[in-house]
Amino acid sequence: MKRSGRKCGFTLIELLVVIAIIAVLLAILVPALSKAKCSAQKVLCMSNMREIGTCVFLYLEENDNLPWTYVHETNADGSLEFFPGTSIFSSYSWAGMKASRPWPGEQGGDFALVPPELRPLNKCLQPDARADQPIEILQCPSDKSAVSPTVGGGSVSVQNQQGRSSWQAFGNSYSINWFFRELLPGAFSVESLFLEGKRIATGKVGGEAAEFALIWENQMDQLFVGATPTGGGTLGSGWHCSFSTHTILFRDGHVEHKYFDTRFSQDAGWRISLK
After folding, report:
1. pLDDT given for residue 153 in this prediction
2. Is the pTM of this model over 0.90?
3. DSSP letters of the chain?
């Protein structure tokens, strides 16, 4: 038998063609995979919100107000007592775990102190939650930033991505709407949340409970600072790969994931304030 003198292998041109084909395939596949991942995370986030909404309704069957924050005890004169040592009151302690990585100087936050077994909605969401054990329903899969502005305070520098998530810093990826009180006349206080909140708890939100934004992804807290009916808030990228696209649970229990113009306190079909 005769042997061919040609050796098996690739020429440089053939190798470059193969590399070019792989590069083109990656350019096509990576965005598609990234989009699919974002879509899956969005669906899971919306599912979380719907479960939270179910627990809100169950909670209201036994209570005449929403758990705007954790209250340890209510005095005879109506004043509120908070968990011992609490110096920071937040819109996260309605549920969640003890923050596993609170910011330095925030160890006195209710999110770092209040045990999960005491937080009102945990009784429905995860009754056996303890310490800093994660509660999956309260973790947005796209959670990648942790900024908690002071409601009624000045604007903050919007952070779309950081080294820790909201569920690590605050024990919860989702924030309950405190901004409704900021947009009402009078001084803001934790007590005033519960006083005015009774109107929301009973569904008397100026007519349409379906419009009132009750719970949202924590990043929206940064964006709604300064929002009014005529504008003043900030637009941001959102956690789910689309600009200014967020997930919100409304008072009537339905969930929406769409573009929200967070510069404003209200728009067609939604509002963060009372009518």
Report:
1. 67
2. no
3. -PPPSPPP---HHHHHHHHHHHHHHHHHHHHHHHHHHHHHHHHHHHHHHHHHHHHHHHHHHH-SS--SS--SEE-TTS-EE-STT--B--SSTTS-PPPSSPPTT-TTBHHHHS-GGGSTTHHHH-TT--TT---GGG--TT------PPTTS------S--SS-HHHHHS-SEEE--HHHHTSSS---HHHHHHHHHHHHTT-STT-GGGBEEEEETHHHHHTTT-BTT--S-----SSSSTTEEEEEETTS-EEEEE--TTBSEETTEESS--
